[in-house]
Amino acid sequence: MSTYNIVASTEDSTVVAEYVSAYASGYKRADAYQSEAELEREFIHLLSEQGYESLTIHDEKALINNLRHQLELINDYIFSDSEWEQFFTNCIANKNEGIVEKTRKIQTDHVQILHRDNGSTKNIYLIDKKHIHNNRLQVINQYQEDQGNHDTRYDVTILVNGLPLVHVELKRRGVAIREAFNQIKRYQRDSFWAACGLYEYVQIFVISNGTHTKYYSNTTRISHVQEMAGSERRKSKKTSNSFEFTSFWADGNNKAIADLVDFTKTFFAKHTILNILTKYCVFTTESLLLVMRPYQIAATERILSRIVVSSNYKTTGTLQAGGYIWHTTGSGKTLTSFKTAQLACALPDIDKVLFVVDRKDLDYQTMKEYDRFEKGAANSNASTRILQKQLEDPNTKIIITTIQKLDVFVSRNKSHNVFKQHFVIIFDECHRSQFGEMHDKIVKAFKNYHLFGFTGTPIFAVNASSGGNPLLRTTPQAFGDKLHTYTIVDAINDENVLPFRIDYVNTMKTVEGIKDTQVRAIDRERALESPKRIREIVKYVLDHFDQKTKRNSFYSLKGQRMAGFNSIFAVSSIPMAMKYYVEFKKQLIERCRDLTIATIFSFSANEDDPEDVMPDEGFEPELLDKTSREFLEFAIADYNGMFNTNYDTSSEKFQNYYKNVSTRVKNREVDLLIVVNMFLTGFDATTLNTLWVDKNLKQHGLIQAFSRTNRILNSVKTYGNIVCFRDLQKETDEAVALFGDKEAGSIVLLKGYDAYYNGYDENGKHQPGYTELIGELLQKFPLGQDIIGEQNQKDFVRLFGAILRLKNILTAFDDFEGQAILSDRDFQDYQSIYIDIYQNFTKDKDADKENINDDIVFEIELIRQVEINIDYILMLVVKYHESNCKDKNILVTIDKAINSSIQLRSKKELIEDFIESVNISTKVDEDWRKFVQEQKEKDLAEIIDEERLKSEETKKFIDNSFRDGTLKTIGTDIDKIMPPVSRFGGGRAEKKEGIIEKLKKFFEKYFGLV
Predict the structure, then answer these.
(1) Which CATH topology does 756-864 take?
(2) Cα distance between residue 913 and residue 744, in whole Å
(3) What span, in angstroms and rounded, lies between the C-alpha atoms of 949 and 584?
(4) Assigned architecture for domain 294-486
(5) How is the chain split among helix, strand and coil, in percent rounded to 5?
(6) N or C: which end of the chain has fewer CB atoms below 10 A?
(7) Contacts from 770-779 at CB under 8 Å and sequence distance 24+?
């Protein structure tokens, strides 16, 4: 039987079950060169064939007139001129509203109130979410906006009821798709907000170069605006890292639909795009818009379809009424389950949706996520008594509880009326302990239910335990049919999660004189717990910590400049956790090293380290033995001292300790967290890149633990780093094959050092290694020779970008130390050339000529990660003055360091003046701060005097800019500091532009230094 027969039974499925390319079905592909204009015409023609009305609208007046007409049609109401003016001014184009408020109107407040001329009110729908085909779709192209920072012209926009809700940016075939993404970033900066700001209603962006097409939500724009805000402590200018979160569209079998023709026939099918806009977007409590990925939508719809079909066929309460979703860890199961729960509880005959998790820590994490998606949408419970109240309350629709609390409720209330109600029961992480007696009791108690499970690592016959009920050992036995699959291979291919890079560090060669072969025969566990082995492992971790967690790399996180990532250390038992914690603290003191180490563990009923399933660690530290609890108190006291908190091992305070640790790991405030089982399942932290493993793992337990490291963050984090102190290679290969396929290893696991350093052959094609690329660089672009001509510059940028990407991977390998080939100074020189080309070809974004970055990608984020610190420059300045200003080599080193840094280039003149004009004392930092402050005040006074600006207002404006991390040039802020200038004759606009340019240069010069 087909695995997607449920979805295939309806033409209105948002994600097509299986897609055959239009070209395979007879669509004629042009052989000739296709310009961007021709690609755009073909795209609009395809939309018109699918029922979109094609309009000629190039200016705001026509856009507003069409909007009025479309809203009149969908609301069956004709506005008077005065009604339209007040409705448009107050509800549509309110000057006090921006992206967030406009997104909220489309997602949650799509019914607005019109105050009619006769004094009554009327509901006006911006979009009809109940009857989606009542909405009208139109397409416009080459819309012009001349009221922003620059005149701009947008490619293609989809209007829904006259509002621009989907924007498409096209580049010709052969141009990097990232350039379309960058173009939209420029629009958000320069013009989306301009005039009436209607383009701030865009919910979804589509970018395409014809060959590859991706989509993403306006979260990117919101995040970009927030990143440009930041805080006083921020030391570097940030850019949006959101390209990593763009998505391909796909069919129900996860086959990517990349070509623009195929993408248009599926994603832009009327029912699909309208379903996505009205059902499959989530506007979070953090004011971010998330648009679901195709596999998430497919899974949701297959569950909903199974509910409807099984209800109609009266099979509720059986396996046929449910099923399970196999979506790999890190693919967004919580969002999928949330949307499923939200849509299921809206079905007419469903009384409640019960979301069941296996442990209190997962209960807390799920509640936090659900609250993030919609505050108060779900109800968690602290006790069985509260769970009972929620089950009995008809207004409580979505309940999150633990299987343990549900088991207690069922045991105590065997004939409760609630069991007769129509329930959807969703089990999270259903690979865990739902196969025992508790599961059996629950499904016997409820009479009218649909049972669904979500798992990233299902239990099959091959990895099932031998104990327990033989009829409940596998996921299909417990939950029924597999409704949708999205494996780790799918996720890595889609770039939704990262692959793993694994080090196997042999720690059993000689332990206290005992050879490895003898260890297994004599006492393996005693050898593993040997103080010498633990001491050597801790030494290895501290020796390699900066390398593995990339502490010399920099990126931005929530407005802060971060150095590298953090890590978890997984150990086999509580005694081992205690030993490692003490040894880490000891060696850190010996090294005078400052790393934040924490540990967390609690009682587990199963202490035998079964390897495949993480034993449950509860929240009952009082059940620990005396030694373990006393040690936990000691470790928590350490934590309290570090973070000025007040936790202990009492039940409630320990739960709060867990929550605080969770938050601080996510914020990268904890460098290394030592755990036994906690945090190895269900915990997501994008800053976490390394798992140190001294624990036996296999099958789903191994994949779950490894997957803590592979969340997408930015281009600096390219893989999850696993360092194994036990030989887990066989277990890793078997687990990857089980949860991917037999060929999955080449996708899920990064290749070895030699492949990246020397190159390798794959699928009949040679992939050059680091040595080959460096050789090509030295041959084609020797230092000291100018790179002349645009094509040569493009070739250099591509080559050096490839070297940056490879070096980013190689730096985590121990073998790479001392093997970089280029000296640090030569690498700086090449990096300076790279930045020169980047700045030269991006400074004039409005030039008529084709930009160099139209068909290449600049790896600026990988450049920023190795930014030179101003402290390093000041150290060199001190050395220069200690030489009585005679060692000119130091000046050359300073010059090269500045030129290789995007951040410091704008401050070059300032640094040079400091070197020349200041008698350096032993307190160079104080001298520098004083010098910068004096120069800043002098330069600002000159700008105020030259431009006749309002002095106090300008100083306040600048202070606010440094505080917020961005110079706000839109709105009325600049107008408030300007002198009186006539608005006629064009002089005011020119004057304003000149002031903005001067203030920008001033801001760049001093930002990060004051």
Answers:
(1) Methane Monooxygenase Hydroxylase; Chain G, domain 1 (1.20.58)
(2) 57
(3) 58
(4) 3-Layer(aba) Sandwich (3.40)
(5) 50, 15, 40
(6) N
(7) 770/803, 770/806, 770/807, 770/810, 770/821, 771/821, 773/799, 773/802, 773/803, 773/806, 774/803, 774/821, 774/822, 777/803, 777/830
Compute and round to an integer the Cα radius of gyration of the chain: 31
What percentage of the chain has pLDDT greater than the value 70?
A: 81
Identical fold at 294-486 and 499-732?
Answer: yes
Inter-CA distances, 516 with 510, 571, 611, 907, Å:
6, 20, 21, 58
DSSP β-bridge partners for residue 312: none
Tally of CB atoms within 10 A around 311: 18
> The tokens of 855 are what?
């068909």
| Burial class of 788 by CB neighbour count within 10 A (0 to 12, 13 to 18, 19+) | exposed
DSSP labels, 685-708:
-TTEEEEEEES---HHHHHHHHGG
Determine the Cα–Cα distance for residues 347 and 307; give it in Å rounded to an integer.
9
What is the average pLDDT score of the chain? 81
Amino acid at the residue 96:
N
Q: Are strands 514-515 and 554-557 parallel, antiparallel or unpaired?
A: unpaired
Is the distance from CB of 250 to CB of 493 less than 8 angstroms?
A: no
pLDDT in tens, 750-763: 788 888 899 988 87
> How far is the CA of 64 from the CAs of 241, 849, 971, 995, in angstroms?
34, 33, 21, 33
Residue 423 to residue 353: CA distance in whole angstroms: 6
* Three-state secondary structure readout of 967-990: CCCCCCHHHHHCCCCCCCCCHHHH
Q: What is the pLDDT at residue 964?
A: 58
What residue ranges do the domains of the chain occupy? 5-58+135-288, 294-486, 499-732, 756-864, 870-1006
DSSP string, 494-558: TTSB--EEEEE----SEETTEEHHHHHHH-HHHHHT-HHHHHHHHHHHHHHHHHHTTTT-EEEET
d(CA 156, CA 47): 11
pLDDT of residue 163: 96
Residue 955 has pLDDT above 50, yes or no: yes
Structural contact between residues 956 and 968, judged by C-beta atoms closer than 8 angstroms: no
Nearest to 832 by CA among 902, 777, 899, 908: 899
> What token pair was written down for 732?
């890793």
Contact 247, 295 (CB under 8 A): no
β-bridge pairing 121-125 and 448-455: unpaired
Least confident stretch, 540-544, 637-641, 949-953: 949-953
The answer to whether residues 377 and 383 touch, using CB atoms and an 8 Å cutoff, is no
CA 283 to chain centre: 16
Q: Report the CATH architecture of 499-732.
A: 3-Layer(aba) Sandwich (3.40)
Residues 6+ apart with CB under 8 A from 110: 125, 126, 127, 129
Please tell us whether the domain made up of 5-58+135-288 is placed in CATH 3.40.50.280.
Answer: no
- 693 touches 726 (CB < 8 A): yes
* CA angle, 603 then 613 then 444, to 5°: 90
- Per residue in 27-75, pLDDT tens? 777 666 778 888 999 999 999 999 999 999 988 899 999 999 999 999 9
Look at residues 713, 711, 600 and name the one whose alpha carbon lies nearest to residue 661: 600
* pLDDT higher than threshold 80 for residue 806: yes
Q: CB–CB of 139/52 below 8 Å?
A: yes
Burial of 271 (0-12, 13-18, 19+ CB in 10 A): middle
- 704 neighbors 430 (Cβ within 8 angstroms): no
Each residue of 117-148: pLDDT tens digit? 999 999 999 999 999 999 999 999 998 877 76
- The residue behind tokens 């000296």 is 823
Give the C-alpha separation, 989 to 992, whole Å. 5
